[in-house]
Amino acid sequence: MSAASIPAALTATLAAARRVTVLTGAGMSAESGVPTFRDAQAGLWSRYRPEELATREAFEADPDAVWSWYEWRRDLVEKAEPNPGHVALVELAALVDRLTIVTQNVDGLHLRAGSQDVIEFHGNLFENYCVERGHPMTSVPRPCPAPPPCPRCGSPARPGVVWFGESIPANALERALAAAQECDLFLAIGTSALVYPAAGLAETALGAGAVAVEVNPQRTSLSGLAEFCLRAPSGEALPAIVAALRARLGIGGATRP
């Protein structure tokens, strides 16, 4: 996909936008080689259902098994690198007044790419806190074969992700809703737009008058609501969007002053 293939109306909307909110899903991370949640059920773990490894009840029943699965997933993610789509979002943030990323992914790739305003809706795979009190545990070594005890209360460490049956952290939910309500343009990338409450952010943005843009090789439940749908991977579509916007602003490779 080239800059010339980006609709002029989309480029004009971006150029006029004062605030852009981006929702990213598993499809974006998959372009970096990160297995989607259910694709991670491979090899030793193929006999489990995801729900058997991603709940508090599962952790309480067999903390070592659940911890080992997350350690295995961390090993996979550590080998991945941000793709051109991640990098393009960093560049896009320099071309608009404000860009906020709400990601459903837990791999930290947006942060590794250099994005600044990132809301990790479902947590971060590489963070840990104790299961009983929620004390942050920042010094857990890797590799770590079993969940270590919290130095403050003794309860075991758990991955800093949102498990099935748990609520989105209040701060992340409030920030994401505010970003959706206040944006001029809502950009959904690599997400099926089926999992709530993240899927509801697009509806919130549209209800507040934002223009919705979808970047996804496949049609989703959001496609009928989006004013622009780019049927391409993020690693192709987002660099093209950035190039088209730079050309419209007449600044080449520079950023808006």
Report on the structure:
The protein has helices spanning 8-16, 26-30, 56-61, 63-78, 84-93, 109-113, 170-182, 200-207, 234-249; strands at residues 19-24, 98-103, 118-120, 123-130, 157-161, 185-189, 211-215, 228-230. The chain has 257 residues and is an alpha/beta fold. The chain has two domains: 3-33 and 82-122 and 168-249, TPP-binding domain (Rossmann fold, 3-Layer(aba) Sandwich), CATH 3.40.50.1220; 43-79 and 129-161, SIR2/SIRT2 'Small Domain' (2-Layer Sandwich), CATH 3.30.1600. A six-stranded parallel sheet has the order 3-2-1-6-7-8, with helices on both faces. Strands 4-5 form a two-stranded antiparallel ribbon. α6 (109-113) links the parallel β2 (98-103) and β3. α1 (8-16) crosses α9 (234-249) and α5 (84-93) runs parallel beside α9. The chain starts with 7 loop residues before the first helix and ends in an 8-residue tail after the last helix.
Low-confidence stretches: none
Q: In DSSP terms, counting alpha (H) and pi (I) runs of 4 or more, how many helices?
A: 9
Integer-rounded radius of gyration: 19 Å
Give the neighbour order of strands across the main sheet: 3-2-1-6-7-8
For the biggest sheet, the summary is:
6 strands, parallel
Number of domains: 2
List how many beta strands DSSP finds: 8
Q: How confident is the prediction overall: mean pLDDT?
A: 92
Summarize the amount of helix as a percent range.
25-40%
Classified by CATH, the class of the largest domain is: Alpha Beta
Structural class: alpha/beta
Strand content: 15-25%
- Helix and strand element order: HEHHHHEHEEEHEHEEH
Q: Could you say what the CATH topology of the largest domain is called?
A: Rossmann fold
Quickly give the CATH architecture of the largest domain: 3-Layer(aba) Sandwich
Alpha-carbon distance between the termini? Answer: 27 Å
